[in-house]
Structures are given as structure tokens and as C-alpha cells.
Specification:
Cytochrome p450-Terp, domain 2; binds carboxymethyl coenzyme *A; 3-stranded antiparallel β-sheet; mainly alpha
Amino acid sequence: MATAQVQLQRGLKGVYIDTSEASFIDGEIGKLLYRGYNIHDLAENCTFEEVVYLLLYGKLPTRKQLAELDKTLKENRSLPKGALDVIRVVQQAHPMDVLRTAVSALSAFDPEAADLSREATIRKGIRLTAQAPTIVAAHDRIRKGLKPVAPNPNLGHAANFLYMLQGTEPDPEDARTLDVDFVLHAEHGVNASAFAARVAASTNADLHCAVAAGVATLKGPWHGGAAEAVMKMVREVADPERARAYAENLLSRGDRVMGFGHRVYKAEDPRARHLRERSRTMGEKKGHPEWFRILQRFENDIMAPYRAKGIFVNVDFYAGSIYYLLGVPDDLFVPIFAMGRVPGWTVQVVEQFSNNILLRPLLQYIGPMDVPFVPIDRRTG
Ligand code: CMC
């Protein structure tokens, strides 16, 4: 088949690989639903914990169901000593590499690591959802020579992360902003990292393997790494008046402006709306409106002509400024995305297992054919 004409779908653009009940995206009109619920309703009215329940169990929880999930999440926030030891050993690495390594290490301590049943996979997904913030916060403290802060059972998921990271209880509005951010990042179909998780699951590898693959794939700046790159860009620009020259220089080199564009959305990324508003209000509240002004210059002026090409701001564009204003170090921006996405990876893996099939596409071979073998002593280099 080497020379035969094949239909190449580079980047799997436009290819459906399976069915899903987890989320629906209409990229032409910027619509996103989790389990049928509009992301705007969820971002405005739900906590991350409610969305975790919705994604994993398929319906919004009652108060009792939410309380039970909340209790389970809180009970599973602490890390086994062995996982903390691993974090200490690799503390110099990028936090995403540490998170990936710690997720792998946690499989050694999880009593159900190899259990592929739906129930066990959901239980493990809940444990990993609870543990991911502790990994990231503990690592940040360890690398700074500080003692990790024990989880606080009186705080919700987002507030507790900020507490473990900074050692003080966060302002409730700050915590709610991060909570909304987690809601917005929780699930997004078969994006690159979820696809990687599904590929791992398609071999009947377990959830820890799949989530480690998801974390690995999320790291790149074309996926989860964009928020960090946006904030780096905004800090280098420093003044809205310098934004145009900066962007023109970037684009003339054929580079992309991070935080713009999306494989599926060719209209507004509905998630960006909430982060835009929260970036603005948080910037004003904390006395740093300048970052928002620079971001707006990119969105409404410099990159406005790109809308005709279907390039709009994506979820990462305003997220970085929020994390920055929350006092989060730049290299934790991607791990925050990962923390929010654990339930999404879990539901994707649950779906993959429910009707499993090996994910194994083809490559069109374009190299030489039937080359005569040359023994090593007769090779000329
Ligand atoms: N800045 C400038 N030009 C862009 C950008 C951008 N951010 N994004 C796409 N383009 C151009 C691209 O160069 C191409 O131009 P041409 O047709 O002349 O070659 C055209 O738009 C189509 O782009 P594409 O590469 O076919 O789009 P894609 O679907 O393969 O890539 C993307 C999607 C997200 C990788 C890309 O838009 C990008 O690199 N954006 C910047 C990184 C970023 O913000 N990533 C976060 C994505 S949202 C969070 C998540 O879910 O991961």
C-alpha cells in the first residue's frame, strides 16, 4: 500500500473516533455542553465538585449526593508518604513533569490500580481529582524549601488548593474564580490529552496510565501550556502601546499568538467569556488593571482581523492573568489546567472501557522500498 492513494487526515482533523455522552461542542457557534448542560449555566451556578459529579455520574447531584462526593474528595486529598518522597526526588523538574511522575507513582499505592471496572475507574478518578492539587501544591512548597501544607477539610476544592499553595486561607472571591476556572476546564471531548488518555485506555491499560498520558500531552504550548506563554508575552509587552509591534514581529516570523485559535472552535470559545470578565474584575480589585488592558489590545485590536479566519481567543488567553493575579507561579498554570481536567480524562477513559477498541490508526509510508541489504563492513556512510 506504500504507493497507493490514501485519504490522509493529518492531525485527525474532522475525524470522529467514537460516540460520547460527556460533552458536546459546536465550534461554529461556540457552544459547549457537559452532559447536556450549557457551560454558561454551569460556570455561573455550579461548583467544581458539582461538575465532577455531573461528569462522572451523568447527572447533577442532590445535596446529599454532593455532600458524599465532597466528603470522599476531602478524605482522599492527602498523599501517601511514598508519593511525597518521589516528589522530593524530582523536585527540580517542571511541575507538569512532577505531576506526571507523581500520578504514575500513585498507582503503586492505589489498592485498585489494576481494576478496570467502571466503578473502580470512577473511584480512582475521584481520588486522582482530590490528589492532583496536593501534588502541585506540595511540590511548589518543597522546591521552595518549605514544608507542605496539610489539606484543610473546611475548604472546598479550589480554596483548599490555594490554601495548600500559599499557607493562608484565600479570599472567597479569589477561590470562586479558581473554582469557575476548574469548571471551565473539566471536560472537552477528545482533545489531544483526552485522546492520549483514550489511546492508553484502548490497550486496557488502567486509569493511572491514561491520566499520566493525559498530563504528558497537556504540557505543550499548543494545548494546556498556552496560558503560561500568554502571560509571558503580556509581561514582555508590559505596555498596551507596545503590543502591536510585539505581535507583528511574532507573526512575521510565522509564530502564533498564544491563547488564540482552536482546532474545534471557529467562533467564540465559550469558556473564554467567563475568564475575560474575571480577569477584568480581579485586575481592578487587585490594583493591576494593566494586564487586562494589554490582553484586550490583543483581542479587540491586533488579532481582530483574524476572526475572519476563525481565530478567536481561547480558554487559555485570560486564564494566565487570573493565575498571575492569584499569586500563582507561571509554571503552575498548566498543572492548574490538569487539575481541572482529571474528571474529564476519567470520563473519557470510562467511556473508552465501556465499549473498548484498540485505537490504532495508520501512517502512509513514503520511504524507499525493498532496499538491498548491505553488510556492515561494506557500508560507506
Ligand atoms: N496565531 C496566529 N495564527 C494562528 C493561530 C494563532 N494563535 N492559530 C492558528 N493560526 C493560523 C495558522 O498558522 C494557520 O494559518 P495558515 O492557514 O496560514 O497556515 C491557520 O490559522 C489554521 O491553523 P491550524 O494550525 O490549522 O489550526 P489547528 O487547529 O491545527 O491549531 C491550535 C489549533 C490551538 C494548535 C492553534 O490555533 C494554536 O497553536 N494556537 C496557539 C496555542 C494555544 O493558544 N493553544 C491553546 C488551545 S485552547 C486550550 C486547549 O484546549 O488546549
